[in-house]
User: What shape does this take?
Amino acid sequence: MGCCRVRDSSEGCLKVVDVKAEVGRVASLLVAIACLAIAFFFGSSEAFHLSVVVVVLPLGCIWYGIEIGSFVGMTTNGENEAGSFFGVLVVLVGWAMLFAMLVSIVYLTF
Assistant: This one.
């Protein structure tokens, strides 16, 4: 349901893209840019530099959470069912960290 097929320009074949993941990535990028903009325009230069450093971990968890959660070690038995649960958990933790950072930046600058 959340997938659509698009044409891959490099290989000319069809590739499945998860639309929900792409929307989540764009939304998380917008929240991260809002954090950085608030820290840049209303905070000090130290707050901006700290925000740049701190925003990387939540974005990584949101963008690559499913892949991080599905990694269980170097096994040859294929995909497991627990990976998707832990991947969603990693994404949720990334969103919680990103919103906590947004709230703390807004609180400290105003």
Remarks:
- Residues 82-109 form the longest helix (28 residues).
- The CA atoms of residues 21 and 81 lie 19 Å apart.
